[in-house]
Amino acid sequence: MPDKYHIKAAAIPGRFRRVGKFGSVDWREDCSRCTNCVKPRCVYDTYKKEAVYNRDPSTSVVPLYECRGCLSCVQGCTKGLLAIALNPEYLALGDEYWRPEILATTWNQADSGRIPVSGAGYRGRFHGPGFDSIWTDMSEIVRPTRDGIHGREYISTSVDIGSKPMRLSFTADGKMVGETTSLIDLPIPLILDVPPWKIAGQVLAKARLSAAKALKTLAVAPATEVAGAPADQLPHLVPLVGSEGLGVVEPLLRQVRMVEFVDGPQTLDLMTKVKASNPSLICALRLPLQGQAVDRILAGSKSGVNVFHLVADLRGCEIGAENPRHLKDVLREIHTSLVKAFMRDEVTLIVSGGIALAEHMAKTIICGADLVAVDTTLLVALGCRVCRGATDATHVDHCAAEAGDLDPAYAAQRMVNLMAAWHSQLIEVLGAMGIREVRRLRGEVGRAIFKEDIEREAFGDLACK
Q: Where are the domains of the chain?
């Protein structure tokens, strides 16, 4: 049995100003200066740091945001003078999809690579739109051998990119008949994708490539943004080819394992040219996530394309639709259509857009993806607050993820930490489901409960809002 895949995380605090969820309210006027005051007993030393700030306001305000909401001080104060309040600045973070708790969770995971635990317990949603309408089946969580990352079973998170032959044929002397196919084996079902909006400079692209090497996965990037990258990182690079054609990508075709093409009128011709120069190279077609994308997939598959990257918008919805659906619904439709066409195992589906948490990765695979591509979340790990829709045109100048002096090594390590936390959570989910390899999770809707389905079963033809 091969060694367990392990991501080496290293604690690296964020260099951006952190915004905490909780703040303490202290009615000091009525304080009796009790000898058994609960403030010095705070396990996070929140009140000690607050006292330092009160003595010298020029010190950092960041420690004031380190309250974890455990409420021990509120319950222990004999005079009832302490309270915990929500920070208004925290509530203003992000938007209705990239909610404050998503940003804070991502920041915490990128700090150390560990799964964050809140002293106040889970206070999130139990249902809602998009991914929040899916519950995963945890029926096997009581089995001691399937205790996630602490269990004794080997849980594989490896996936393949490329087409696998549906059957093997051999001659009388034992030689295999037919062409051999190229496969890329990744130890984790994710790759690192380009940001959803254009970012100047090469720092982020080079950081993604460095992180991909550490994670033993792939990073999508325009070749111009990773010019001069070390030769040992090129096998982890997926050059992105757009309307400009091959250009600077052509010299790299012998050094990379996969190349991705943005869909266009001449795309299939370019793919044919590339395959002629390097038959072992895997060519992927980048498509917007739409219901009619299945027609393009079926047509591309007949032309020899086996890998398709479906890109949703920033909130995980269809692109270009009047009433956009969430990717969970579109992806299930595409997956089912490919199964009915007896082609599902002949293609690889990569999905990106709106995947903000580790649970979204597992739920996307349940809906039919082979693996996911992470984009916006990588920026959030560096301090981004997803404020691209802000009216203030100068917000980019203050974005910690797009600052010109960003250190590539710092950015790469925070990306690695985040993916380490995601990998641990994926193993926890697989173990709780009783699934020993993530390949079996693809399209396994029986391992999940969909809110729309149970409402339909419970209420029949009644309209469920």
A: 22-86, 159-459
